[in-house]
Amino acid sequence: MLRTTFTKTSSIRPFRAAFSTTARVMTEGATGSPPKTGGQGDAFQRREKAAEDFAIRAREKEKLMELKRKLAEQQQHLQRLSDHIDEITKDQGGEQN
């Protein structure tokens, strides 16, 4: 009778470990830390950053060229206005001309 009691008890409540012996494994970057240098992803990230920087510099250069063109147009316009004013005042005569 004692033997049957032990077998019935063990089949009802299976044995479970109180703690786990398996180590917790995380992949690189899963901890939220910045990626380490020297990996394959870093070469891609550096190339991507270089391409973005190049595109930004190209856009800034285009903007500067456009501003220089507008500045030159404004200076030409001011010179034409100044010449026109000089032409009008020259015909008026007087002490200052």
TrEMBL record:
What InterPro entries would the database entry show?
Answer: ATPase_inhibitor_mt
Q: Does the keyword Mitochondrion apply?
A: yes
Compartment list = Mitochondrion
List GO molecular-function terms, semicolon-separated: ATPase inhibitor activity
Q: Where is this region: Disordered?
A: 25-47, 74-97
Bias-annotated ranges (Basic and acidic residues): 80-97
Task: Identify the keywords attached in UniProt to this record, alphabetized.
Answer: Mitochondrion
Q: Which Pfam families match?
A: IATP
Where is this protein chiefly located?
A: mitochondrion
Annotated Gene Ontology cellular component terms: mitochondrion
Instruction: Describe the task this protein carries out.
Output: Inhibits the enzyme activity of ATPase.
Q: Name the family the entry cites.
A: Belongs to the ATPase inhibitor family.
The protein in question is named ATPase inhibitor, mitochondrial
Name the species this protein comes from. Stachybotrys elegans
Lineage, broadest ranks: Eukaryota, Fungi, Dikarya, Ascomycota, Pezizomycotina
